[in-house]
Amino acid sequence: MATEFSFSFNAEQLKEGPKRLDRDLERAMYATVRFHDAGAEAWMKHNAPWKDRTTNARNGLFAKGVKISKKVYALILAHSVTYGIYLELGTRYMRKRPIIVPALHLYGPKVMRTFNKILDRL
Asked: How far apart are CA 101 and CA 43, in angstroms?
C-alpha cells in the first residue's frame, strides 16, 4: 500500500519569514533596553552612596535605552552634573563614591538574561 505525500510552499512567504523575524528581534531588543532603563535609573537614584547637599547629583543620574545601529543596542547610564566623574572616580581630596559601575554590574546581566529569553523563544 503506497502512501501519498505532497508538499507545496509559497516562495514569497518563505522569503518574508527571515525579514519579519529580523524586524521582530530588533523591536524586542529595543524594548528590552527601554524596559530596563527605568529600573536602572531608579536603582541608581535610590542607592547613590553620597550625602546630598543640593540633590543635583542624585536627580541628575539617568539611564536610557538606545538603538545605536541596526544590530547594536545600549543601556546608557550616566551623570548629568559636571562633577559626576569626581563622584565616580574620587579625587586627591575626596574618596570615590561610584554608582554607575555598580549599576552596570547589576543591570548588565539582567538585560542579557532578557535577551537570552527572547532568543530562546525564537
From this structure: 12
Q: Output the pTM of the full model.
A: 0.80
C-alpha grid cell, residue 88: 565616580
Burial group, residue 65, by CB count within 10 angstroms (0-12, 13-18, 19+): buried
Side-chain half-sphere CA neighbours of 3 within 13 A: 1
Q: How many residues does the chain have?
A: 122
Indicate the range of 15-19, 31-35, 83-87, 88-92 predicted with least confidence.
15-19
Q: Got the DSSP string for 57-100?
A: HHHT-EEEEEEEETTEEEEEEE--STTHHHHHH--SSS-----H
33 close to 74: Cβ distance less than 8 angstroms: yes
Tell me the HSE value of 113 on the side-chain side, using a 13 A CA sphere. 6
- pLDDT tens, 57-93? 999 999 999 999 878 999 999 999 999 999 999 999 9
Cα–Cα distance between 107 and 102 in angstroms, integer? Answer: 9
